[in-house]
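User: Some background: our group keeps a shared notebook of sequences we're curious about, and every so often someone picks one and asks for a predicted structure to add to the entry. Today it's my turn. The entry only has the sequence so far, pasted here. Could you supply the structure so I can complete it?
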Amino acid sequence: MYKHILLAADGSDHSIRAARHAAEIARHIPDSKVDILFVIDYNQSKSDILHKDSIITIQKERSLRLKPHEEILQNAGVAYTVKVKHGEPGSAVAAYANEFGVDLVVIGSRGLNKLQEFVLGGVSHKVAKRVKCPVMIVK
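Assistant: Of course. Here's the predicted structure to add to the notebook entry:
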C-alpha cells in the first residue's frame, strides 16, 4: 500500500514526530522505503552563507538537523535515503512527491520557519493542496 513514503524533514520537533509516524508505517510494510527530503530555502541559504564561517559548517548543521530522523528510521529497521533540494519548501516537496510517484507524504504541521507559516499558510498546507497522493500531517 504505502511502499514509497516521502518524509519532509527540517529538524523541527513536528518533523521529528513525523519521522516516528513514517517509521511506524514503513516497518509494517515489506519492501517499503522512506525518502527523507530536506529542502534548503533560497532565502535561508543566502543568510547561512553570509553569517556562517564556511560551507562545511553549514553542511554540518544541516546534517545535524537530519540526524534524529535517520536514527528513528534506522532503529525501526526501515530502508531510507536522504535527498536534498533547493527552493521553496512547499513547492519542492510537492514537486518531488509528484515526480517520483510516492504513495504517502508525511510532514509535520509546523516547521522551523514561523514567519512563512503565518504569512503564506504553512508548508504542510501547500503540500496537501498540491500532491497527488495521501498526506499525513503530524502535530
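Suggested note for the entry: The radius of gyration is 14 Å. Residues 115-121 have pLDDT under 50 and may be disordered.
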